[in-house]
Amino acid sequence: MVQSMSINTLVTSRCSVVCGSNDEWRRNFGQVKELHILPGRGSLCLCSYGGRTTSFGAPCGISRPRSLRVQAGWLFKGSDKGSEFDASSEHSESANEDILMFFFELDLATRVQYALNLEQYDIAQQLRNKLTEVESEVIRLRENRRGSASKSEAQDMAISILRLRADLQNAVQSENYSLAAELRDEISKLEAKSLAASVKAQAYENAQYAFRLGQKVKHKKFGYRAVICGMDPVCCESKTWMDRANVEKLTRGPDQPFYQVLVDMHEDPNLLVAYVPEENLQAPDKQDTDRFDHPYASFLFYGMDAAGDFIPIKQLREKYSQPRHELPYDPLDEEDGKDA
């Protein structure tokens, strides 16, 4: 049995990912080769190393809390044409990492309940401790993305500005004008940062989205089919990513909703997960009930509804505070059923 395990790297490649392990795992099992996602099974995925296999997130005797760090990378790289803008410019490792962390959180919760059902209370407690640790980290990252941290940051800056204004008043009264000039410049910089943080926090609180979780969409420029699996009211990627994706050249810039989308593997098997601005997406002209394949779909959605869109699981809706979507009642459907 594995005594302790820490996943350091997950690199996604279609239906499988290559993963690295810590030194202790290497000593016990050798080099890990592949980690396969297994939809519909009791575990999230399966590690293959040599002739052995082990499930990722399986109950294990963890003697002490261990830090968890997940990094996502890609086996498929974009074009070597440098600055040329193509579909690969919108692929996002951070979006993929966010989804993998969500999988891991769900898997731990399932395993806690499984251990309780088997009356394995010690293992259940260890898993619950790890789940609490993961949930705390996920909540922190989620708050940073949703603007809660920005709101707190703006409040802290406002307090700092008040203190600096008091120092400025004292400097003026003591006729220390050089210090007063420095304080005035610092106050101006803080006011600009505070305003930006307040605007970002306000954007998260009043976000309006044109698309919903599970909705099938089409990319306006690249033409591929995709499904919405996450959303942010503004672009939350790094400056490096925004430069590569030419975000500043967008009509609405970075201050518009951006969506995590699963890309149909039949149309672009190298992309998998993309981070797309709202202005680059459109709903299909008619109901899209065609087959859609993606290795993450069975974890994030219950299946498809009558309109061809995917039905997000409850935990995914709660993650983004989105309501359940109900199809409008169509009396023609009932009449067609009677005729049949």
Structure description:
- This protein has 3 domains: 7-143, no CATH class; 148-205; 216-327, no CATH class.
- The chain contains 9 helices and 13 strands.
- The strands form 3 sheets. Strands 5-4-3-2-1-6 form a 6-stranded mixed β-sheet. A 5-stranded antiparallel β-sheet has the order 10-9-8-7-11, covered by helices on one side.
- The chain is 41% helix and 18% strand.
- Mean pLDDT is 75; it is low at 1-83.
- The longest helix is centred in the middle third of the chain and has 29 residues, at 177-205.
- With 340 residues, it is α+β, with helices and mostly antiparallel strands.
- The protein starts with 6 loop residues before the first strand and ends with a helix.
- The protein has helices spanning 23-29, 93-117, 121-146, 148-173, 177-205, 239-244, 297-300, 314-319, 331-339; strands spanning 7-13, 16-21, 34-37, 45-49, 52-55, 72-74, 216-219, 225-232, 258-263, 273-277, 281-282, 301-304, 310-312.
- GO terms for molecular function: DNA binding; peptidase activity.
- InterPro entries: Clp_protease_adapter_ClpF, Hemimethylated_DNA-bd_dom, Hemimethylated_DNA-bd_sf, UVR_dom.
- This is Clp protease adapter protein ClpF, chloroplastic.
- Residues 208-312 form the Hemimethylated DNA-binding domain.
- Keywords: Hydrolase, Protease.
